[in-house]
Amino acid sequence: MGAPRGQRARTGLVAGWLVLVPVSAVAQSVAEAPRTAPAAEGRVIDRVVAVIGNQVLTLSELEFETRVALVQRGGVRAAEASLDEQTLRGALELAINQRLLVAGADRLQAFPAERSEMDARLKAFRERFEDEPALLAFLARHEADLEQLTAVLERAVRAERILDSRIRLRAQVSEAETRRYWEEHKGTLGGPYESVRDALREKLMRERYGQLAKEEFAQVRAGAKVRRVAPFAREALP
Questions:
Q1: Is the distance from CB of 71 to CB of 119 less than 8 angstroms?
Q2: Beta bridge pairs of residue 87
Q3: pTM greater than the 0.85 cutoff
Q4: Would you say which domain of life the source belongs to (predicted)?
């Protein structure tokens, strides 16, 4: 029968979020220009990208979270390339959404990350690398450690659970809706209804889940204080 609908919905959500960080878009970026100021003024260690509620997000944090997302999508090599502004803007939207959702849950002391979930997420991330030294080298190159990686993955796990709890039931697609869609598009779908029913239901559920997620994010952001500081961060996504 496959994975439960709720789990499939979460998978669709993750894929939707990570589309904001396309591997193909990774290229040389103005945001990756040298960060060293003239010698007389000293060296710029980091820069603030955005302030989300009472949380400050720096460029180094955003870049690391972007690279973690790229690795999760299987782009280990791409994660080592320079990051362009389009990629960073997409990653920033992901970072804002996650932080706002988790901050709301923290106020209610709700939706802690289960140990089993974290173990599975860390295991999956490790398996993207050839071995443990390769993973540690990746972290060292980006001045991070396993604790920081765990924090990034934990925030993602919690955000997914929070969003799923709010919209999973509303994202369900009935048999009648699936069949109606097939009737309207059977000329291009090919095959009998029974052979495409499961794929169609999955498609419709992902689309509905994505739309509901956008609406939920809009509501969460409506009452939130988000200030984009970096020039690239202030530009609207296309």
A1: no
A2: none
A3: no
A4: Bacteria
